[in-house]
Design a protein that fits this description.
The chain is α/β, with parallel strands linked by helices. It is built from ten helices and ten strands. The chain has a domain of 71 residues. A six-stranded mixed sheet has the order 6-7-8-3-9-10, with helices on both faces. A four-stranded antiparallel sheet has the order 2-1-4-5, with helices on one face. It is globular, with a radius of gyration of 19 Å. The N and C termini lie far apart (47 Å).
């Protein structure tokens, strides 16, 4: 692999005890790299820590141990101001866009907000940038004055992607970004993401439980079980013959469909 854009080494997050709930080691010893323009799929069962990895890698929550290096910068040592400046280069797209989009803000205002936060553009320049972003994710200008509840699930996710792209990131973290959508809309959003990645040279951390999407989207796969990485392999190697028993268990759980009968 070429020089990594993102390097995560021995990442650990422990959630403290709260009330009757004991302390929990959410993730431990997580190590992986992502090169510029590459997609790494992070897979595993529910509750294995995939989303915790995503948030800790972006320092949206503070890890208890480990090192995170983005574009040669150790982000674990950054104070709030420099971290905020760097964060424009790495963005998160969540599963449910309806919870990520402020309900009383129009689409235009939602996409413009990152431009203002990061001092990228204001006024007419921001309006022009917003129109370009909305067009790039496949929406027309008529959507600019709509509110999130007036959109379909796929349209909301397109707005969330446009908002993530507004700051000009080099890395997108896609946390189950299409799992709440029906299969037709999933295909449309994945096609959009493939084009955006190709056009913009984006690196992606693609978090999913759907192994069929992994085959389509990722060049490498990292498998999590119980808060730890148990296997990392190329996508081809993973589907030809995974090395870890849990990886084989995941593949065995994928439904197999009967082949059509040819008369």
């Amino acid at each position: 692999m070429t020089t990594p854009l993102l390097t995560v080494r021995d990442l650990a997050v422990r959630y403290p005890a709260r009330g009757a709930r004991p302390a929990t080691q959410a993730i431990d010893g997580i190590t992986f790299e992502i090169a510029a323009g590459e997609t790494l799929a992070l897979v595993g069962g529910s509750g294995c820590g995939k989303s915790t990895v995503a948030r800790a890698a972006l320092r949206l929550l503070e890890p208890d141990a480990g090192h995170i290096v983005f574009a040669g910068i150790d982000i674990g040592t950054l104070a709030a101001g420099p971290l905020r400046a760097l964060r424009r280069r790495m963005q998160l797209v969540m599963q449910d866009a309806s919870t990520a989009l402020t309900p009383w803000m129009t689409v235009g205002a939602l996409v413009a907000e990152p431009l203002e936060i990061h001092n990228i553009a204001v006024g007419a320049a921001a309006d022009h940038a917003v129109r370009l972003l909305i067009d790039d994710v496949g929406l027309s200008a008529e959507f600019l004055e709509r509110l999130p509840h007036e959109l379909s699930g796929g349209q909301r996710q397109r707005v969330a992607i446009a908002r993530a792209l507004a700051s000009g990131p080099e890395l997108l973290v896609l946390d189950e970004a299409v799992s709440a959508l029906d299969v037709v809309v999933q295909h449309e959003i994945l096609t959009l993401l493939e084009r955006l990645q190709r056009d913009r040279g984006l690196a992606c951390l693609f978090i999913t439980h759907n192994l069929a999407l992994v085959q389509r989207m990722a060049s490498r796969v990292a498998v999590m079980q119980g808060g730890r990485l148990v296997e990392t392999a190329s996508t081809v190697e993973f589907f030809l013959g995974p090395a870890h028993p849990y990886s084989r268990e995941l593949l065995d759980a994928v439904p197999s469909y009967p082949q059509p009968i040819i008369p």
